[in-house]
Structures are given as structure tokens and as C-alpha cells.
Design goal:
Structural class: alpha+beta
Number of helices: 4
Largest sheet: 7 strands, mixed
Strand content: 25-35%
Shape: globular
Helix content: 25-40%
């Protein structure tokens, strides 16, 4: 493969992706997110992912990340609306299975999801909030062209403090009448 050959493709999250979500719930993949979720919460998350993928309002979308070479699911990524600093923005987050890390998959998926968020023409910015200690995810943000705004505090999961970096990607001007009108303020992730 050369630089123009896609490493991955993103496909809308579906009912059949619960096993992928279970695989992504491993301790080594949730280290910076408060650890694995119990089965009940995982099922709820899966339901939210399926609903968001069916939504056509521009609220966002979840995807499974698929290896372009093998067609095998290798991770997840999505974008969703978030209230941040008094306004509505899109937030993104991703996870790649351990056997596929270090191959540029997360960066390729992030670039693909940024194009999907840009195409929605609803919000000006796409933010990512990796833990300040998550070297790999911060590198993905840098490689995908996000600008580091600074550090910020979150609770994720709720009740668990998390010191994060606020990375922002400019998606361009939203379509008139589609942009969130509230100013940017802290909110919750998907």
C-alpha cells in the first residue's frame, strides 16, 4: 500500500457490533477512561451508539473502524454533540484493538470521522479530550491536524476526575441556521 491507499474505512455502528464493543472494553484500552464498564453499562452504551448511528439530525454518528485490507473490525470512532464553554461543538473519541495499534489506524479513522463531521456542516469545531497522560491519543490528535487549546478537567466516567488535553479541529463554517447557538461550556461525553 502507498500513502494514497486507505488504511481503514469507517462504517456506521450497528446492532451486530456489541462484541466489538466488548473487546474494546478491555482494561488496557480503558486505562485512561476509568477502567472497563460493567456489562449493563456496556449494553447501554451500545444502545446509544446504535441510536446515534441511525440519527440523521446532525447530532453525530458512531462507526466501527474496519481494516481496508482484511475487512476485519479493528476499533470504534465517532463524533457527537457536546456543550463546551457555553456552545455546542462536536466531540470525537476512538479506540483501536491492541493487535492493530501503532499502524496509523487511529489517525486514519480520525481523519475520516473529521470529514464526516465537516460534511454535516452543523458545528465549527471538532474537539478531542484525551487524558494528558495518554501519549498515543495525544499523538493522534497532533497527526490529524488538531490544535492543542490547553488542559481541562472532566469527570469521566461521572464521579471520576480526569485531567485532559483539549484539542480542536476547525471544520469550517457551518451551514447557516445549523450551528448550535449556545455559547461553549463543560458537558458530558457519549
Amino acid at each position: 500500500m502507498d500513502e494514497t491507499t486507505p488504511v481503514v474505512r469507517i462504517e456506521p455502528w450497528s446492532e451486530g457490533d456489541l462484541e466489538l464493543l466488548r473487546a474494546l472494553n478491555a482494561p488496557e484500552l480503558t486505562e485512561y477512561l476509568g477502567g472497563p464498564e460493567p456489562e449493563g453499562r456496556l449494553a447501554e452504551r451500545h444502545g446509544r451508539y446504535v441510536a446515534l448511528s441511525a440519527d440523521r439530525s446532525g447530532a453525530g454518528r458512531m462507526y466501527r473502524v474496519v481494516s481496508a485490507g482484511s475487512g476485519e473490525p479493528v476499533g470504534s470512532i465517532g463524533f457527537w454533540e457536546k456543550t463546551w464553554r457555553g456552545g455546542l461543538v462536536y466531540e470525537t473519541g476512538w479506540s483501536v484493538l491492541p493487535g492493530f495499534q501503532g499502524r496509523g489506524i487511529a489517525t486514519a479513522a480520525t481523519l475520516a470521522v473529521a470529514e464526516e463531521a465537516r460534511a454535516a456542516r452543523k458545528h465549527r469545531h471538532l474537539h478531542a479530550f484525551p487524558s494528558v497522560d495518554n501519549v498515543a491519543s495525544n499523538a493522534v490528535c497532533r497527526k490529524a491536524g488538531f490544535s492543542l487549546i490547553g488542559e481541562c478537567d472532566f469527570e469521566y466516567p461521572p464521579g471520576t476526575p480526569l485531567r485532559s488535553n483539549d484539542w480542536r479541529l476547525d471544520l469550517g463554517e457551518p451551514e447557516p441556521g445549523r450551528a448550535g447557538s449556545a455559547p461553549e461550556e463543560a458537558g458530558t461525553g457519549l
